[in-house]
Amino acid sequence: MFQLSGETATGLVEMATRPGTMQSPSAWAARNRCVAEPVSGPVDIGVNLTSWSSCDAPTELYTVDGGGHTWPASIGTPGLADLLGPTTDRR
To answer: What b-and-e string marks burial along 81-90, b requiring 16 or more CB atoms within 10 Å of the CB?
Structure first.
């Protein structure tokens, strides 16, 4: 049986109510004063990079096809796969 601490459980509930994948980086792009629209393209098999240019700070989003909300090739999250999605084995 996999048990979560109260702090972890609270964090997971908060994570579930946050903005979606493109809303968060778009908000960062606005905060970083990016002028151009984002450009997307593949950087590896199953990995896509969306980046904004002309910003006060680098603003990028990497997405992994079939990946969940986990760190690629991480261990220790199999008990959370239903909530976080799958973990890729790509490094």
So the answer is: eeebeebbee
Conformational region of residue 5, where left means phi above 0, alpha means psi within -120 to 50, and beta covers everything else? beta
Q: In what order do the strands lie in the sheet with 59-64?
A: 39-44, 47-52, 59-64
Q: Determine the 3-state secondary structure of 39 from DSSP.
A: strand
pTM, entire model: 0.61
Q: What tokens does 26 get?
A: 């778009």
* Partners of 61 in beta bridges: 50
Confidence class of residue 9 from pLDDT cuts 50, 70 and 90? low
Per-residue pLDDT at 42: 96
Distances (CA, A) of 79 to 3, 6, 34, 41: 9, 16, 38, 32
